[in-house]
Amino acid sequence: MEELSKLIDHKLLSVLVVDDNKFTADLVRKILNAHGISEVYQEYSGETALACLFSNHINVVICDVVMKGMSGLQFTKAVRDGYVPLPGKKETPIVMLTAHSEQNIVMASLKIGANGYLVKPIVPKKLMQLISKSCRSTLPILTIRGS
Can you give the residue ranges of the Response regulatory domain (predicted)? Predict the structure, then answer.
């Protein structure tokens, strides 16, 4: 897995972090910045994240599952269904980052089109590996604590 992250130049990535918890969104941004990703957008709802995705070139989305208003699952479905009507937006890699490890939630995320699923607590190395893999693959990737 280490090899994949070396193939992606993180400095070139633009990442959208979607989480209604500002502390978590800030933590993810700091992790991304520490790994060379300087272009990080933060949104605190699915609705504003859709607008951000429409207005900006985003390589990867990191999205919480449970949020007030539009959930991460609803956001992912909207993206995959073409709610953002621009070329390539439907295929934007989406990594779910959440405290929920229940199989039904994991499977629902992957079924609607999430490219990866990472269960908190956040392990920076695992997050970066998942981002790298998601940028290179359209197959879903699952990472549970400690794996």
Answer: 14-135
